[in-house]
Amino acid sequence: MILLFVVLFPIAAALAILLGAPARRTALWSAGITLGATLLLCLSFEGSARGGYEMVTSCAVSTDWDINFILGIDGLSLIMLLLTALVLFAAVWFTGEIAQHRNAFYACLLFIGAGAIGAFASLDLFFFYAFHELALIPTFLLIGIWGTGDRQLAAWKITIYLATGSFVLLLGLIMLYRAIPETARSFDFRVLQQSAILIPAKVQGNIFLVLLLGFGILVSLFPFHTWAPQAYASAPAPAAMLHAGVLKKFGLYGLLRLALPLLPAGAQQYNTLLIYLLLGNIIYVGLVTIAQKRLDWMLGYSSVMHMGYIFLGIASGTLVGTSGAAVLIFAHGISIALLFAIAGEVRQRAGTLVLEELGGLGKLMPQAGFAFGLAAFASIGLPGFANFAGEVMVLFGTFRNSANPEHFTIYQWATVLGLWGVVISAVYMLRAYRAVFMGSMGESVTTANDLRRGLRIPIGLLVAITLWVGFFPQTFVRLVTPTFKTYFAAKQ
Amino acid sequence: MTIVAPSLEIAVLVLGVLVLLFETFADHIDKRTFAYTAMLGLATVFLATFFLPSTATAVADTGFWSFYIDDALAIFFKRFSLVTTILVLAMMVDYAPVVRDSIHGASPQAGLGEFFALPVFTCAGLMWMASAIDFVMIFVSLELVTMSFYVLVAFMRRNAASLEAGVKYLILSALSTGFLVYGITWIFGVTGETNLARVSAALANPAIETGPALFGMLLILVALGFKIAAVPFQIWVPDVYQGAPTPVTAFLSVGSKAAGFVVLLRVLQPFLVMPRMERLLVLVALGTLIYGNLAALPQTNLKRLLAYSSIAHAGYLLIGVVCLAGEAVVYYLVAYLLMTVLSFAVLVVVAKQTGDNIEDFNGLAKRSPFLAFAMLIAMASLAGLPFTAGFLGKFYIFNAAIAHHQTTLIVVGVITVACGFYYYFKVVRAMYWEAPTGDIAVPITGLSRMLMTAMIAAIVFFGIYPQPIVNALRP
Prior knowledge:
The structure holds 2 protein chains of 2 kinds.
Chain A: H1 2-18, H2 23-44, E1 54-62, E2 67-73, H3 75-94, H4 102-121, H5 125-146, H6 151-179, H7 189-195, H8 201-219, H9 227-234, H10 237-247, H11 249-262, H12 264-290, H13 295-315, H14 319-350, H15 361-364, H16 366-380, H17 386-400, H18 410-437, H19 456-471, H20 474-491
Antiparallel strand pairs in A: 1-2
Chain B: H1 6-25, H2 32-48, H3 72-103, H4 112-131, H5 135-153, H6 160-191, H7 196-204, H8 210-228, H9 236-243, H10 246-268, H11 275-296, H12 302-322, H13 326-353, H14 364-367, H15 369-383, H16 389-403, H17 407-433, H18 446-464, H19 467-473
Helix pairs in contact in B: 1-2, 1-4, 2-3, 2-4, 3-4, 3-10, 3-13, 4-5, 4-10, 5-6, 5-10, 6-8, 6-9, 8-10, 9-10, 9-12, 10-12, 10-13, 11-12, 11-17, 12-13, 12-16, 12-17, 13-15, 13-16, 13-18, 15-17, 15-18, 16-18
């Protein structure tokens, strides 16, 4: 019941705003209520050690094709829901003055949140896909209508990339569905999990490749990443927070939820390819990030780069690594949302995000500087922040896979190169921090107010949860391991 | 009370004749009255289709029921033609001033009566064609449709572009008809039959020579390829579509194409078991997909863009035909009807004020938000964004292709879908992101607004809940 409420309430609120309810107040309240309900969900979640879905609600939509509206959560989806609710709340709060179509802006934000929540809570293939699409369309609109800079090109590019990506994904899902013998076919995740063993290994490989391509385009896997920095640079800050923080994680969630458990043989076949590609994310995109001259582009590239670690967790093939990927999804979502939020505030106040023109803002905006610093440290992966917990688990898990003191396999090499990625991200994050907040004041910026007092609440919330996960990662790990244990138990 | 299926066509024909007759003697009343009358009449016939007996009449060996069938597919396409014609007539009312300006007749309304009456005859032809299961019947109904299109395409004969379109359509269409008849003779020569069921029975006989029958089928495919605008018989499409009056273009691209596909589905059934035939169709589908989508990319005129997009959609439909996925093809046609007619309807209204180039749509969202929104939905559906009928249509088509392991078609299809996003969103970009050329709202009549709203609703409704269409196809 609570779950159904969490899924449908933001949609209802968005529609109400479109119909003329006071935009900001309704959006903020409904995001807050959604967050509250999600926390309630966390409390009432039992979390049996054997995994499995809880709070399943279902209702039939089309009997002919066996499409049902099924909702349910396990630990993994619960983390994703929590992330979505948190970032949605912060994004709505961070929304400043909107020059035109105020109501539509807030409605779009809520639709993205609702779509993401729906996709993470759906146990039916059809709705899993459809909810994600529901969230994509407002993203295009947000960038195209309210964006800055070269917003047209950015919106166009993201539309073509993501629409193609989701189409490839759709084909992959149909292939998956078709590969199961007719009598055992279903859109229901729970049934799929049972009947997926019937798919022969070779077919599994093909399906996995298509799914990896589809999900990969959505998550900006190297070399399909070029849409991301441009889109995030042009997007209004709340849209960048929601997309980079939450919606992009749909692809990773999809790989964890569908590709790994249903196609274990396929995953094994293409693991090497995935590792090569994700090293492209970590090393190549990492170096590109260092070269960026604008804060928004740098953050966009950094978010592409950090996807590499999550992919590494997915490719690690160990329980620790996979759990680390889930923790890292959450951690990265929070930290990147905070970074984009502060960058948006800086843009509003200083009027530019070119690193050379900025400087010394720490004096004018001490709070913003403090918050940005914390988020940057988190993003680098300093101990004490959630990202650290995630990255350590991922790297540790990857290193342990087929570990052999005699010689290194690809997993060990990937770990070594991945560790260098941490150094790379320290370089660009600290350089950006110095360029924006330290040093002498830039010429163009002489007066900039600090954050409004109200913003302490969302910032405090996001920082607190990163620190909490950083210091007590086991609360989260305990949630996801039962699910992942079933994956690896089936393999042995 | 029960109605027999053929009485529907007769009713439509009578309606057309009546409109034409009264029109001759009514000089002083507003000629648009006849359009409304025709729409009302067609709507009545549409309602009557729901009172047909639920089971199809058995096919007889001789007589009427040996070349006429009233199965679910036929009834469905009768409804399809009726809805298309009603929507086209509504568009024609909006378009009437353009026709009037181009004719310079004796009276201020000269020619309008025929303009409203001809689509009714076309509709009768389309409805016959849906029921045709005999080559002779197919030929006759196809001709009834084509004849009225000859006149309609060249209706604004003082306009050079329209005249050119008419001549091109006339010559090429006549040529394709020739191919059709020649093909039918070959098949008749081999099997001694014109009834489709008996042709396929005769072909199943191993003693028969399949070579000549296949040759005949090839010729028929040429003729139908012309109707559905498949590569390499698509050359006429852009010029004719651009030159013809816009409502006629919409009619041509929906009605004529749908009829072509129904006939194709019926005719191909006995032949598709031959592997050579399937390979040929795959090639045609590939060519159509690639040509239609690539040629659409650089277009700057919206009417021409829609012409190329209609070739592209013929490609997707052909994927469904190759896989013999009747349901998928039919659903796609319905989606195609809704989104194409909607985009043409907006085009008619907007072009009256500015023009039919894409740049004439600049900033439409600021001038007329409703029209821009309608066009947005149409373009989103044509591109295949989820929650629209166009998306589910592609879903079914690709679903069938995956089931039949048509890997090449799938790969090429995905690439062309990406192309589609590019050129359809060009229109959206113009409407929403470019600065408007003027700030005068485009005037729109209440009827058009109502019908557009209905089409938007239908696109979204069928995009979420396709069950009604699937149910309608099952007896």
